[in-house]
Design brief:
The complex is a heterodimer of chains A (334) and B (334). Chain A is an alpha/beta fold and 334 residues long. Chain A contains 12 helices and 12 strands. With 334 residues, chain B is mainly α. Chain B folds into 2 domains: 72 residues, no CATH class; 236 residues, Orthogonal Bundle (MetI-like fold), CATH 1.10.3720. Classes of the chains: A alpha/beta (334), B mainly alpha (334). Bound molecules: adenosine-5'-diphosphate (ADP), iron/sulfur cluster and magnesium ion.
């Protein structure tokens, strides 16, 4: 297929609260090509989950409002009808979540939950669907699949449940898999196995993955291209290699410094001082300014726009207004 | 499930023994000689002595209890002082009448209550939600006897729509087969009698159903609201499932767990309420039977009536526990 599988233009998702309508995702643009793994990173609370729910058409209504364009295979699905979205969800765009322990229904068997997804979208009979469910469980590396199918979620470990979630998401061979922090709740070894599995699935099928995480380590392992989000905005975008070697935005630099490095065995990990601003607190200037050690006068009053460099890297920071500022990287990482 | 059922039945034995003991002691807790009380102050000494012997009151209490238990095991509930016939035979038609009324009332309460609760939760804060919850609140604060009398006054007397009292048309009485008249009239193919029986059931059934219906509706609503916020509901929606099935399958089965407890509890309380309702609507059930026995101091009847109601309580509890295990797979493994 030509062109991106999904293209998001000026997506703005806001919630109606007592303090008025507050944008949580504020005019973001990105695209994912067929078969590509795109990383979306950012600290918790910066709007990653809301972005994915906007694509799925699952932003809670009527409190939530989605504006902008979400082109799936070239067709705008932002605010599409429920009937239309139902045909896409689980079928062409599937999603897995952060909490494997609670994302499966405790009162239905693994088999029932897998078969159900298939029977929503395909006219298969029970036997065929069951057969396929067993195959999927094997595909995601679960042994004794024939028995597992009759077991309930509480009989499985967190890692196994996440594998079941992946099997369920992949059962209809979706074009896009949205993985919202799929390994955050798992311990390190299991995390590595799940990432390995997803990477293999991505290679074997032509399913593109939107890999949401707050961990750049996951991005390094999984993705070709990455988007860094901060306070509902894209603040940096580029090839993973470029961004790791030459991060431009001070926030990205901070994120990179807070990756645990096994070789250095530092006592305490670096973390960016301060917190993600609560949505709606300020709309003026650069959202990162209160936490930025490079902040200029201008940063507090005017919002920077996304600048593109020759290598395709994009950054939203006043320091690069003149197209320079490459010294930042060398001076901050020491 | 089978071993759970067996275990659960086993645990009933001490409960049933305790129940029998309490009922056994009741008649002995009457101040003075029960034989004297039963026979009245004018009775001769010989008569009292004979009655004491007849009741076995001259033996040590544990022998009496043993005899009483043996009697119960062989279905011997004693002899009515008033009619001189065995209580175990006399009580059956009354018992069936109560069971029929209670079943119909619970059916009305569960079907309407559960659905009202589901729809209220699904469309939270809609006009339906508000209306249903206001009606439920009114239903809750309504004394049964007052409701029963109002029903009779308006629907039967003013509008002349339904009969005021009884189970069937006195001029064309139903011939008991099982004692459940709805069933009996169908078995004997008497459609005219069936509709008479239905007409007689409506008012007492509604009066009895009102409070449990209100409680079930409120419980279902709050339980559904909680379940519908769960991660696995988001998963179900992300699969592309229709909202109807998300609500009636994935949410309801989880939400039913606390609702089943309430239904069990209300069924028990409803048996208590039945005594009052039966009185108002001249329903020839166990409430009426006990009530008459109290007026004529027919102790064996009172004793057995209470024992039977207590027994029904225990059975309802058993059914609730089994339902629990059937709904929630986690229970069996605890
Ligand atoms: N239903 C909602 N109503 C109001 N605010 C919400 C809602 N869902 C999310 N938010 C807010 O949106 C912001 C971004 O949330 P989220 O997308 O979950 O962040 P994350 O990047 O950690 O996934 C948070 O500040 C959160 O409080
Ligand atoms: S725009 Fe200013 S405040 Fe924002 S990141 Fe760049 S230097 Fe820091
Ligand atoms: Mg999130």
């Amino acid at each position: 297929m030509k062109g991106p599988i999904i293209e998001v233009n000026g997506l703005r998702t806001s919630f109606r609260t007592d303090d008025g309508e507050i944008p949580v995702v504020n005019s973001i643009d990105f695209h994912i090509n067929p078969g590509e793994v795109l990383g979306i990173v950012g600290e918790s609370g910066c709007g990653k989950s809301v972005t994915s729910l906007s694509i799925m058409g699952l932003v809670p209504s009527p409190a939530g409002k989605v504006e902008g364009e979400i082109l799936f295979k070239g067709v705008n699905i932002a605010n599409a009808s429920e009937a239309k979205m139902r045909k896409i969800r689980g079928n062409e765009i599937a999603m897995i979540f952060q909490e494997p322990m609670t994302s499966l229904n405790p009162v239905f068997t693994i088999g029932e939950q897998l078969v159900e997804t298939l029977r929503i979208h395909r006219k298969w009979n029970k036997k065929q669907a069951r057969q396929r469910a067993v195959e999927m469980l094997k595909l995601v590396g679960l042994g004794r699949a024939e028995e597992l199918i009759n077991e309930y979620p509480h009989q499985l470990s967190g890692g196994m449940r996440q594998r079941v979630m992946i099997a369920m998401a992949m059962i209809c061979e979706p074009k896009l898999l949205i993985a919202d922090e799929p390994t955050t709740a798992l311990d390190v070894t299991i995390q590595a196995q799940i990432l390995e599995l997803m990477k293999n699935l991505n290679k074997e099928t032509d399913t593109a993955i939107m890999m949401i995480t707050h961990d750049l380590g996951v991005v390094a392992q999984m993705c070709e291209r990455v988007i860094v989000m901060y306070a509902g905005k894209v603040i940096e975008e580029g090839q993973v290699q470029t961004i790791f070697r030459n991060p431009k935005h001070p926030y990205t630099v901070g994120l990179l410094q807070s990756i645990p490095d096994m070789r250095l065995k530092k006592e305490r990990l670096y973390s960016i001082p301060g917190n993600v601003p609560r949505p709606g607190t300020s709309n003026q200037g650069c959202q990162f300014a209160p936490r930025c050690s490079h902040a200029l006068e201008k940063c507090l009053s005017e919002t920077p726009s996304l600048l593109e460099f020759d290598n395709g890297q994009q950054v939203r920071c006043w320091m690069y207004e003149d197209g320079k500022g490459a010294a930042l990287h060398d001076s901050t990482i020491s | 499930m089978f071993s759970y059922t067996v275990r659960r039945l086993g645990s009933l034995i001490p409960v049933l023994l305790g129940m029998a003991f309490i009922v056994f002691m009741m008649i002995r807790a009457i101040p003075g000689n029960p034989a004297q009380v039963i026979l009245g102050q004018q009775a001769t000494k010989e008569a009292v002595a004979a009655m004491t012997k007849e009741l076995g009151l001259d033996k040590p209490w544990f022998i009496q209890f043993w005899d009483y238990l043996l009697g119960l095991l062989t279905g011997d509930l004693g002899v009515s002082l008033k009619t001189k016939s065995p209580v175990s035979e006399e009580i059956v038609p009354y018992l069936m009448a109560t069971i029929e009324l209670a079943l119909i009332a619970m059916l009305i309460a569960v079907v309407i209550g559960v659905n009202a609760g589901i729809i209220s939760a699904w469309f939270q804060n809609s006009w339906f939600d508000y209306a249903a919850m206001v009606i439920a609140l009114i239903g809750l604060s309504m004394p049964i006897f007052w409701l029963g009398l109002m029903e009779q006054y308006i629907i039967s007397i003013q509008w002349d729509l339904l009969p005021t009292t009884g189970r069937d048309n006195i001029r064309d009485p139903v011939e008991a087969i099982t004692g459940l008249y709805l069933l009996d009239t169908l078995i004997s193919g008497r459609v005219d009698q069936f509709s008479e029986v239905v007409k007689h059931l409506i008012l007492p059934g509604l009066a009895l159903a009102t409070i449990p219906m209100a409680i079930i509706a409120r419980m279902t609503r709050s339980s559904m609201l909680e379940v519908m916020r769960s991660d696995f509901i988001r998963t179900a929606r992300a699969k592309g499932m229709r909202m109807f099935w998300v609500v009636y399958k994935h949410s309801l089965k989880n939400a039913l767990i606390p609702v089943v407890t309430v239904i069990g509890l209300q069924t028990g309380l409803l048996l208590g309420g039945a005594i009052l309702t039966e009185n108002i609507f001249g329903w020839p059930g166990i409430g009426t039977y006990i009530y008459d026995a109290i007026l004529s101091r027919d102790y064996p009847v009172i004793q057995s009536g209470i024992l039977i109601i207590a027994f029904l309580f225990v059975m309802i509890n058993l059914v609730v526990d089994l339902l629990y295990a059937a709904i929630d797979p986690r229970i069996k493994y605890k």
